[in-house]
Design brief:
The chain has twelve helices and nine strands. By secondary structure, the chain is α/β, with parallel strands linked by helices.
């Protein structure tokens, strides 16, 4: 077990205002047959949570330690299972007379045995199986992948209005529709056997192949064809005039309309960036301010526009930057900010 320290940068209102602190991390290491000096490659990525939280890009660091300081790996230490004790040969010997075929008794059915009732197939087995399947379905409905659908379903049903009776009727139709669909698929799968599975597998392979092909075309043409992560959420939930990756075009448009350029710098792996997409940009007051005063653009400086990372002095994500029509910076906000705090930052400019 080794302990190493790495600098954790805390950023404030300016990208040039930095504070360095050190965080100690224990790294478990084992090895065998090592000698001299050993090189260890360590990758880390510091992030802070909550309001103002930021994420730094992944960093690689090389550590050099003496081989004598690395403990040897043992089978018991790795698996955590104690080796099984082999029984002694004496314990395996059992004294028993060999059976003789001629002396083996023959079972003759008696009258009482013939009259004994033959156990019938239990009818309760089907009911128990149905109950277990129902409980399993209820359990599957409590998995995390179902949770996002609960507020979506409630919003759709609630948006229709009409009171409790209409809401119950809509819910009933939704549940019955799902039940009929999946029951039909289950019956078809049971009746067709392996043929249905082969068809489903072939269909899945075709869909995956199509998606991979589209992604390949995207990378070759540098043209987004399919939705990516939080980008779609921001474009749909934020102002209608969001632009993507084209800083030069945004500057020209802002200069022509005498507006500022609001740059939302993000990365696909940044959780705080997705918080901005889900909580801050959809806010009605924030959307109104941007529509009136700025040309909004989102830029991924980690993958799609790494050339702008140095120009915009990006050191953490998310970074929200305000530029004038000439490209001069007039303000910068780092990390996730709630709508109220974002409005204070925007209005001050």
């Amino acid at each position: 077990m080794f302990r190493f320290c790495f600098p954790l940068r805390s950023l404030f209102s300016s990208p040039r205002s930095l504070r360095f602190s050190f965080l100690s991390v224990r790294v478990p290491v084992t090895g065998e047959g090592l000698s001299g000096e050993v090189t260890l490659d360590v990758q880390y990525q510091p992030c802070t949570e909550g309001e103002g939280g930021s994420c730094f890009p992944p960093t690689n660091r090389t550590l050099k330690v003496k081989a004598s300081e690395i403990p040897a790996a043992t089978a018991a230490g790795i698996s955590g299972i104690k080796p099984e004790k082999k029984p002694d040969s004496a314990s395996l010997q059992v004294d028993a007379p060999a059976p003789e075929a001629s002396s083996a008794p023959v079972a003759v059915p008696t009258a009482e045995a013939a009259k004994a009732p033959v156990p019938e197939a239990p009818h309760q087995g089907l009911l128990l199986a149905l109950l277990l399947v129902f409980l399993a379905g209820m359990g599957a409905s409590l998995t995390p992948c179902v949770y996002p659908m609960i507020p979506i379903t409630m919003a759709i049903i609630g948006a229709k209005g009409g009171g409790k009776a209409k809401g119950f009727a809509l819910s009933l139709m939704l549940v019955l529709g799902m039940a009929v669909t999946y029951t039909t698929l289950g019956v078809v799968a049971a009746k067709s056997g392996a043929a249905f599975g082969a068809f489903a597998l072939l269909l899945l392979i075709l869909i995956l192949g199509l998606l991979l092909g589209i992604r390949a075309v995207e990378n070759f043409l540098n043209l987004p064809l399919l939705p990516r992560g939080g980008a779609t959420v921001a474009v749909e939930a934020g102002p209608k005039a969001w632009m993507e990756q084209d800083l030069e075009g945004a500057l020209k448009k802002a200069k022509a309309e005498h507006k500022l350029v609001l740059v939302d710098v993000y990365a696909e792996w940044c959780a705080q960036c997705k918080e901005l997409d889900e909580k801050t940009w959809p806010d009605a007051e924030v959307k109104a301010w941007i529509a009136k005063n700025a040309i909004a653009i989102r830029i991924d400086t980690d993958k799609q526009r790494p050339d702008l990372a140095k120009k915009l002095e990006i050191r953490s994500y998310p970074s929200v930057i305000l530029l004038d029509g000439e490209g001069r910076e007039v303000g910068r906000s780092l990390g996730f900010q709630k709508p109220q705090n974002m409005l204070v930052f925007l209005a001050a400019r």
